[in-house]
Amino acid sequence: MKAVAKLKAQPGFELIDAPVPKLTSHRVLVKVKAASICGSDVHLFKWDDWASHNLTPPRIIGHEGAGEVIEVGEQVEGIQIGDRVSFESHIPCLHCARCRTGEMHLCRDLKTIGFGADGCFAEYIAMPEICCVRNDRSMPWEIASIQEPLGNSVYAVSESDVAGKTVAVFGDGPTGLFAVAVARSLGATTIYAVGASPFRLGLMKKMKPDILIDVTKEEAAEIILEKTHGNGVDVVLEMSGAEKAIHDGFKSIRNGGTFTAFGIPSKPLQIDFAKEVILKGIKLIAIHGRKMFDTWKQMGDLLNSGRLDVTPVITHKMPMAKISEAFALLTKDPIEAGKIVLYPPTW
Asked: CA-CA distance, 226 to 237, in Å (whole number)?
């Protein structure tokens, strides 16, 4: 099969010929129909410090995808040939205390496809049965492929209990864009959307926030405090990991509010924990991955109901053979792409 791989500890990816993965008893062989690019894949492409600490070449990359099951292992019981599935990228060990008490997403020995195991930027992938989530056959492949990152946003927003509350979303990357749409679908009242990229602010506007803030021209915390009469918002969803966004989020939240952190900072941060957290009495929630598999059920229901529409976030679709062109779009400054979906069948 054809695949995209990181073969050496240096920038770039390579198109390779690789053997079709072999099945084991609890795995299924999936013909990949669509795969989408994550920001972490951009780190791997650039081969920065973060990438060098999180992946050891050689490795087939890609962890966001979907496809059709074409073969099942002898002990697979819940997945059948012909099923359309999305990939839960996190592979739990199923034996540690977290796995055995309903917290598989926090597994002590968690592996991720595209990092610790070969990924889905390929024609085929052998996935553990437990990591295959069946989709309604009416779901478009491109939507099926972005459920992994969308699930991060669904988890973050649902844990924050946004119904009937004011919300500020910091970050105009795909998870931030998704979070605005999810917050709207789950009943948030006033939504402040905060970003910095002109192109992605345009996408964010399509997610229908009430107030859009461009931090290259405005001070987000000042605007939010002014609009809320000095009180701040009930919920902050920090989806960027940017240092200023994190501090602005703490400034923007009301006393007793909920601060939900998903974005990963590029380096350790200095936080005035007393002033920014304790003395404001805020509730701090950390989000990692998706709840396995509560988030997937909620996300599927929202998508199938029509209450959640994230199609504007997908700005490009192209064959996987044009992988270099795709990453050129995602590394351009300023960036001019949202979510890019790749199609292996068009090699």
From this structure: 19
